[in-house]
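As a representative case, the lines below give one protein's residues and fold tokens.
***
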Amino acid sequence: MFMLRILYICVSFLVSILVTNVWLFRFNKETPYRGGNATNMIEEFAAYGLDINIMYLVGTLKVIASIGLIVGLLKTKISVYSSLLMAILMTGAIYFHFKISDPAIKYLPSVLMLLCSIFIYFSSKRILKTN
């Protein structure tokens, strides 16, 4: 159980930092993972056929989920909900990459964040059971 807690903490920090970095610090920067031929977040959501308001909603939810993952290290029940929200959002991201026929490299980060979110979800549920 000790190793599970350590891994849970590390993965929670990793997801939180990476997702926050994308939405707050790399928002207007080109990355190899942007959907279509987008060079920033606004162009990426346009490539998916999504409105700018949806982009801001998704970004807000991802940052809230990221904060929840950190808060969840102190209040484990919050991790359950935050990781579930993050997993849902990452599933949506993967869907939109598929929708526009992006190559696998473009949605690899979303897949990794989805897997990490699933791990956090089940780990936090297990930690709650043992407390």
